[in-house]
TrEMBL record:
<keyword id="KW-0949">S-adenosyl-L-methionine</keyword>
<keyword id="KW-0408">Iron</keyword>
<feature type="domain" description="MTTase N-terminal">
    <location>
        <begin position="3"/>
        <end position="119"/>
    </location>
</feature>
<feature type="binding site">
    <location>
        <position position="48"/>
    </location>
    <ligand>
        <name>[4Fe-4S] cluster 1</name>
    </ligand>
</feature>
<dbReference type="InterPro" id="IPR058240">
    <property type="entry name" value="rSAM_sf"/>
</dbReference>
<feature type="binding site">
    <location>
        <position position="12"/>
    </location>
    <ligand>
        <name>[4Fe-4S] cluster 1</name>
    </ligand>
</feature>
<dbReference type="InterPro" id="IPR013848">
    <property type="entry name" value="Methylthiotransferase_N"/>
</dbReference>
<dbReference type="InterPro" id="IPR006638">
    <property type="entry name" value="Elp3/MiaA/NifB-like_rSAM"/>
</dbReference>
<dbReference type="GO" id="GO:0046872">
    <property type="term" value="F:metal ion binding"/>
</dbReference>
<keyword id="KW-0963">Cytoplasm</keyword>
<dbReference type="InterPro" id="IPR023404">
    <property type="entry name" value="rSAM_horseshoe"/>
</dbReference>
<comment type="function">
    <text>Catalyzes the methylthiolation of N6-(dimethylallyl)adenosine (i(6)A), leading to the formation of 2-methylthio-N6-(dimethylallyl)adenosine (ms(2)i(6)A) at position 37 in tRNAs that read codons beginning with uridine.</text>
</comment>
<dbReference type="InterPro" id="IPR006463">
    <property type="entry name" value="MiaB_methiolase"/>
</dbReference>
<dbReference type="Pfam" id="PF00919">
    <property type="entry name" value="UPF0004"/>
</dbReference>
<comment type="similarity">
    <text>Belongs to the methylthiotransferase family. MiaB subfamily.</text>
</comment>
<dbReference type="Pfam" id="PF01938">
    <property type="entry name" value="TRAM"/>
</dbReference>
<dbReference type="InterPro" id="IPR007197">
    <property type="entry name" value="rSAM"/>
</dbReference>
Length: 432
């Protein structure tokens, strides 16, 4: 009998990838996915622990879902991902409607856990097992896929930035063997994928028998795989061979997410980032020499403990020098168990004000870069039909969303598009 599975995903792209894998793992148990929690027999929340708000959302969502159990006594509720890893059993104590808790490294055991909750027992698994979960996700359905897919190649982190929970929720840095990654990429291409984004918390530290640059060069040789991206990178792992790949590998897209967090050396040191603002700027310079049209994005934290006005101004200055095409900026959130959690925070109003100023500056640059695309022709990977008749939506090499009018392009095609207008978050154009 088919049962219905509803998965809600929070957090980063790795969670998106993991949710797909969990759906496949439970597919073997007769589950098909549903888009609505109301008709589900199993609900999984794949959670994020990175900031307090992200983690608290999970409990309010669980509170909303709980009444569904009265309508469907067969309904089981599970919490997966980084909150599951960080809080474990505590989740079931705080919300007794939860039947199952599974961490990011053990979801290949979901089929056994599902059987256990069906028999009325709770199931909890937040191990860091020696075996590779990906090796245990066999017999996946060969379903057709959307043209752009994520592919996890590296997980975990050994960097221990003073603010960050990832080394605790995802564990130590581990790379998947290159042969496995290539096998999965070939399988994706057979299923209709044209673009892969290689994922890792420190993806450029990849060392699965070759460097990330080596892996990218191997992937570029796969027929039908037209585009390669990777995220997230750490400035200290940006090797010369990876920079060279940006100059030489046509399939490697001209877009790089390279978080710096702050432009103040004093704060970077307290964050345990082990790079300076200057070394980051020099790195950006070298990358731009290799690939002059590259669009950069970054992550920033404002209001880190002891951040002064002068420290914040240094961040603004760094942003002015780099001119990001996109950037994500966050107010510092104190996370239990991290070294920075012990330190006194910045006044929340001051932090709010800094965040607004930083975001305004980033938006200004983003807008300028978007505007500079108008009049240019570029290749767009067509991903789905748009809202208007004949309109398609795709992605530019620089990761812009592009609305294509009046063309003949089908999903999965790479269309040549002349850009006619720019908004803050998307471009519009016609197929040529
Ligand atoms: N591995 C990536 C980022 C992982 S988390 C890297 O090293 O760049 C994604 C982003 O969340 C981080 O880059 C950081 O900007 C932000 N972040 C992490 N911990 C945070 C915290 N405690 N408070 C606010 N933002 C945080
Ligand atoms: Fe977190 Fe730093 Fe590791 Fe990135 S490098 S995941 S910010 S500890
Ligand atoms: Fe969040 Fe875990 Fe990703 S904490 S950002 S879901 S690695």
């Amino acid at each position: 009998m088919t049962k219905k599975l509803f998965i809600k995903t929070y957090g980063c792209q790795m969670n998106v990838y993991d949710s797909e894998r969990m759906a496949e793992a439970l597919g073997g148990q007769g589950y098909v996915e549903t888009a609505t929690p109301e008709d589900a027999d199993m609900i999984l929340l794949n959670t994020c622990h990175i900031r307090e708000k992200a983690a608290e959302k999970v409990y309010s969502e669980l509170g909303r879902l709980k009444p569904l159990k009265e309508l469907n006594p067969e309904l089981k509720i599970g919490v997966a991902g980084c909150v599951a890893q960080a809080e474990g059993e505590e989740i079931m104590r705080r919300q007794p409607a939860v039947d199952l808790v599974v961490g990011p490294q053990t979801y290949h055991r979901l089929p056994e856990m599902e059987a256990r909750v069906r028999s009325g027992l709770p199931a909890l698994d937040t191990d860091f097992p020696a075996e590779d979960k990906f090796d245990h996700l066999k017999g996946r359905p060969k379903a057709r896929r959307a043209p752009a897919a994520f592919l996890t190649v590296q997980e975990g982190c050994d960097k221990f930035c003073a603010f960050c929970v990832v080394p605790y929720t995802r564990g130590a840095e581990v790379s998947r063997p290159a042969a496995r990654v290539l096998e999965e990429a070939r399988d994706l291409v057979e299923r209709g994928v044209r673009e892969v984004t290689l994922l890792g918390q420190n993806v450029n530290a990849y060392h699965g028998g070759m460097t990330l640059a080596g892996l990218i060069r191997e992937l570029a040789r796969i027929d039908g795989l037209e585009r390669i991206r990777y995220t997230t990178s750490h400035p200290n792992d940006m090797g010369d061979d990876l920079i060279a790949a940006h100059a030489e590998v046509e399939e490697l897209m001209p877009y790089l997410h390279l978080p710096v967090q702050s432009g103040s050396d004093r704060i970077l040191k307290r964050m345990n980032r082990s790079h300076t603002a200057e070394s980051y700027l020099q790195l950006i310079e070298r990358i731009r020499v290799a690939r002059p049209d590259i669009v950069l994005s970054g992550d920033f934290i404002v209001g880190f403990p002891e951040e002064t006005d002068a420290d914040f101004e240094a961040t603004m200055e760094l942003v002015r020098q780099v001119r990001y095409g996109y950037a994500f900026s966050f107010k510092y959130s104190s996370r239990p168990g991290t070294p920075a959690a012990e330190r006194p925070g910045v006044d929340p109003d001051v932090a709010d004000d800094r965040l607004q100023r930083l975001q305004a500056l980033i938006t200004e640059h983003q807008r300028e870069i978007q505007d500079s695309m108008v009049g240019r022709e570029m290749d767009v990977l067509v991903e789905k039909p748009g809202r208007n008749p004949g309109q398609m939506i795709g992605k530019s090499p620089y990761l812009h969303s592009v609305h294509i009018e009046g063309g003949t392009a089908a999903v999965g095609d790479i269309a040549r598009v002349r850009i006619l207008d720019a908004k803050t978050n998307s471009l519009g154009g016609v197929q040529v």
